[in-house]
Design brief:
157 residues; alpha+beta; Sufe protein. Chain: A; globular
Length: 157
């Protein structure tokens, strides 16, 4: 990755950390899930309001590092309005991106590509994927809490 591209990606992450999008509670949510990364203390809640099979609204609230907050913010922007199936595909594509296994689908991720540098820092993969795992749990009605320590892998599934 070029130095210019890395600088752009860092700028996107810092902007989403400073001014996160959809950073609010959602009293009329139809689903929610909590996410916890015990390793670094990141914790958040993701709320969804579904309209049939479509994500009508999504928000999050919590605390964590810049990568965790930026990833959650970017996630809310791209998942809003998507079908359940498309949100699942985004989860898979972003998970592949942050774990360094992204292929051709990386080109389709737009601003989410800013998270690609995380794959160089295995401990940060958990930070970048936490909100996505909480979103997926809420999306499938699992609710409750997900943690990055589940499944013994780099992130909860």
């Amino acid at each position: 990755m070029s130095a210019e591209l890395e600088e752009l990606y860092q700028s996107i992450i810092l902007d989403h950390n400073r001014r996160p999008k959809n950073f609010r509670d959602m009293p009329d949510a139809t689903a929610h899930a909590d996410g916890v990364n015990p390793l670094c203390g990141d914790q958040l809640t993701v709320w969804l309001r579904m309209d049939g099979e479509s994500v009508a609204d999504i928000s999050f609230r919590g605390q964590g590092c810049a990568i965790s907050k930026a990833s959650a913010s970017m996630m809310t922007q791209v998942v809003k309005g998507k079908s359940r199936a498309d949100a699942d595909k985004l989860f898979d594509d972003v998970h592949a991106l942050v774990t360094g296994r992204a292929g051709a689908q990386a080109a389709e991720l737009g601003a989410l590509k800013a998270l690609s540098g995380v794959s160089k820092f295995p401990l940060r993969v958990k930070c970048a994927s936490l909100a996505w795992h909480a979103m997926r749990a809420a999306l499938h009605g699992a609710g409750g809490s997900v943690t990055t320590d589940q499944s013994g892998g780099e992130s909860a599934s």
